[in-house]
Sequence to fold (201 residues):
Amino acid sequence: MIIEQNIKTLPLAKVAEVLKKSEDLNLTDWNAMNIATVGLKNIPSSRMVLLKKINDDGLVFYTNFNSKKGQDLSKNQSIAVNFWWRELHEQIRIEGEVAEMPPEKSDEYFNSRPLKSRIAAIVSQQSEKIESPETLQKEIDDLAEQFELNGDTPERPKHCGLYLIKPSAIELWKEGDFRAHQREKYLKKDDETWESCFLSP
Ligand SMILES: Cc1cc2nc3c(=O)[nH]c(=O)nc-3n(C[C@H](O)[C@H](O)[C@H](O)COP(=O)(O)O)c2cc1C
Fold:
């Protein structure tokens, strides 16, 4: 997970600051975030993923483009993100749109993962029905064994890769005494600059 130094965009720099704090404290799954997408019939669905990178462009995560979330995002690029760190008493909410990262970046990330994770990505048809978890595990183990025996390097399946979340709204929430929480909201304007205000808790 890479928190880029010297982020210039103010709300993203603030997000990076909270992430750095949670990383330094070694909080469990400090880079886990909930992402919500909108599917057919406008039904929202959400799930956890791990943040892989943050910089001035936005936030990056890795997934299967053919999964439920990938199918949702191919039709509607809108996404909502939620982080919560219990120990920090802080929450961050982000709204924006996604774009697939260039294939070279996804290759770079894929190749950095342990062999078994790469094999699991090849075998797993994320979000599809399977016969049983045991059958899938056997497929992964068998294929990993083949790769290990042959000394081959698995290639990234084209349907696995990185998404960039380009934020248009960011809210930083801090718990206050007796529910007097602080909410600072940033909105991106048409000229790409950001305006901010405070919201009532
Ligand atoms: C803490 C945590 C981290 C996860 N990280 C990822 C991730 O980085 N990428 C991913 O595709 N799924 C990740 N998952 C699994 C997803 O939550 C989800 O089950 C999977 O992506 C399928 O979602 P979908 O069917 O809505 O597409 C994670 C789950 C948990 C609990």
Q: What stands out?
A: The helical segments are 10-24, 68-75, 103-111, 115-123, 133-150. The mean pLDDT is 96.
